[in-house]
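Reopening: structure tokens for the zinc ion complex, inputs below.
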Amino acid sequence: MENISEEFIRSMVPRVKCAGCGEPYHQEDITAVSRHDDTWLVNVTCGACRVRSLIAAAVKPGEGPRPSSRVPTDLTPEERPRFTKPVDSGDVLAMHYYLDGFDGDFKTLFSPPPS
Ligand SMILES: [Zn+2]
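Re-run output (same inputs, fresh job):
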């Protein structure tokens, strides 16, 4: 259980929704974190409706974060393989050919495709 950290507890807070308005909490909504034996207490103030709450998280021994879950990411499990593989020579070559024909029109590049 010693591998449980305040950082890990704070990372779990966005999974909890406010009892007052139903909005998920954000990292900046946390006002204090404390620990009492196996129980962590997190004081939060909802950023949407300002209702203050106390979240208690009981953590069983051995239920710490796994190394692969320690990197914060907003990638979905489906996106992860696509964006976490190392860049290889094929990627560099593909970008070279793309940039060779790119006219510099970023506005069109980042616009949603016409429907
Ligand atoms: Zn709220």
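The chain has one domain: 6-63+71-109. The chain is about 25% helix and 20% strand. Marking as resolved unless the reporter disagrees.
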